[in-house]
Design a protein that fits this description.
With about 220 residues, this protein is an all-alpha fold. It contains ten helices and two strands, in the order H-H-E-H-H-H-H-H-H-H-E-H. Strands 1-2 form a two-stranded antiparallel sheet.
Length: about 220
């Protein structure tokens, strides 16, 4: 799998942002509305959010490259590659809901679709196999991105992803005879070792959720 096209889109969006400042203005407007549980690791909240968005987007091609390598090494190519192609498709062929968006603002939406798709697929695997297909926790990052995108639009994207993930999982037919064998394969030390080489995503983003404040608000 080659992600050259996605990386080119990201560089073009960065150049667009450098000339227009659209994302910076949008995030600055969002600051007053953000949930107080969303906290930057630096003293400059706007700079932290800009860094988060940039890294959240850039993580997509990096993740796809890493996941492709792991799939080949661990013998999960037949299962993982359709998932990676679907996530890639959200970037290269965005749905009609994203028409009219440009720059990093648009790629934030597309990255959200890709990351949420992986999260939904993992939820399906947890339900049926007791463990995720891709052992990467995207929950915090996706919750923050959801807030930045804003409702109700983020909810529309969630529904789109949920439908796509259910369809993708349904097409991966697992019969009773191979169910236990497949679970054992996911638990194979070789598979786990391949995924452990992937660094912690949340540590790179510069924005985190204060779960205490979140629970208090609820």
């Amino acid at each position: 799998m080659s992600n050259t096209s996605i990386k080119q889109l990201i560089e073009q969006a960065r150049d667009y942002e450098a000339h227009t400042g659209e994302l910076r203005r949008y995030l600055n407007e969002q600051l007053a509305q953000l949930h107080p549980s969303i906290q930057g690791q630096s003293g400059d909240q706007l700079a932290s959010l800009m860094h988060f968005v940039d890294q959240y987007i850039a993580h997509v091609p990096e993740f796809l490259d890493a996941a492709c390598t792991v799939a080949v090494e661990s013998g999960l190519t037949e299962t993982v590659m359709p998932l990676l192609r679907a996530a890639e498709y959200f970037f290269l062929e965005p749905p009609p809901q994203l028409e009219g968006h440009r720059g990093l603002d648009a790629l934030l939406d597309e990255a959200y679709l890709a990351h949420r798709f992986v999260e939904e697929i993992n939820d399906c695997y947890m339900t049926h196999f007791g463990q995720p297909l891709i052992p990467m926790d995207l929950t915090v990052a996706n919750l923050i991105a959801h807030q930045l995108i804003g409702e109700p639009f983020a909810n529309e994207l969630d529904e789109l992803v949920h439908t796509a993930a259910l369809h993708q999982f349904a097409s991966s037919r697992f019969d009773i005879d191979n169910l236990e064998a497949y679970k054992a394969h996911l638990n194979d030390p070789k598979v786990k070792a391949a995924w452990r080489r992937w660094p912690c995503f949340s540590a790179e983003l510069g924005v985190e959720l204060n779960w205490g404040m979140l629970a208090h608000a609820c």
